[in-house]
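Help needed: design a sequence for this.
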């Protein structure tokens, strides 16, 4: 049986002498594992298909429950991401996120589009890689059922301007008047960054014209606090540590 997948290569490990085991994140079926044969031989035609971040149409044959890549046509690639250490870790964080959630998520279509948009935005480099990652988590967690409202105090509805608190149990923001002992205070700058980021589309971050959101989105310290927030949130809610986050938080 042959199948076609529009897929991103999210893991590639050596297997036997000349082969690679790939994990693909596909539009059609989520996570797909397959073997890429003979790829380490000189002049291997499908070498590109075994590179991390390759986005291609993979044609895969299944036999005895094992899938083998028999053809691949490159659609796009994100290899330039490897040339910058922050871009690289932001991209590997996205891949770690996919590995964690793609098996559990219901809508692969949106997660797939988000993943491509996120990698594109990281590659284009108009915004900090950490910022793109924060927006990716924000959208990904909504898809996974952990959406957060950033618009106002959850209890009284007031627009929060000075001190802001987050309730990790109910995943809502509160003003100083409504917060109780179970809430954690957050920097107001971080909260304002998040509420602005929540209003724009992830695909907008691919845009090279950054003037609209400067300088809010360029403040590395504030962006790092926002990333720390999601790093903690994911650990707390999903009990998963995304290792690549740590390299971006130093
Ligand atoms: Zn309130």
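Sure. Designed sequence:
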């Amino acid at each position: 049986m042959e199948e076609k997948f529009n897929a991103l290569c999210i893991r590639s490990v050596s297997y036997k002498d000349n082969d690679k085991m790939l994990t693909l994140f596909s539009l059609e079926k989520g996570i797909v594992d397959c073997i890429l044969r003979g790829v380490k031989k000189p002049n291997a035609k499908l070498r590109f298909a075994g590179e991390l971040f390759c986005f291609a149409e993979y044609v895969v044959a299944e036999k005895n429950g094992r899938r083998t890549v028999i053809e691949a046509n490159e659609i796009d690639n994100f290899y330039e991401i490897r040339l910058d250490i922050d871009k690289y870790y932001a991209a590997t964080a996205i891949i770690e996120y996919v590995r964690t959630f793609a098996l559990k998520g219901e809508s692969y279509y949106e997660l797939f589009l988000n993943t491509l948009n996120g990698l594109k935005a990281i590659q284009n480099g108009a915004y900090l890689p950490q910022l793109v990652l924060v927006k990716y988590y924000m959208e990904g967690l909504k898809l996974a059922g952990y959406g957060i409202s950033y618009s106002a105090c959850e209890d009284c509805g007031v627009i929060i301007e000075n001190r802001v608190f987050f309730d990790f149990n109910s995943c809502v923001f509160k003003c100083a008047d409504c917060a109780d002992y179970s809430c954690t205070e957050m920097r107001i700058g971080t909260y304002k960054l998040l509420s602005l980021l929540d209003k724009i589309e992830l695909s907008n971050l691919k845009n090279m014209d950054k003037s609209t959101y400067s300088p809010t989105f360029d403040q590395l310290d504030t962006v790092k606090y926002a990333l720390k927030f999601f790093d903690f949130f994911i650990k707390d809610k999903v009990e998963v540590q995304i290792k690549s986050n740590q390299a971006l938080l130093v």
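The chain has two domains: 2-77, 81-249.
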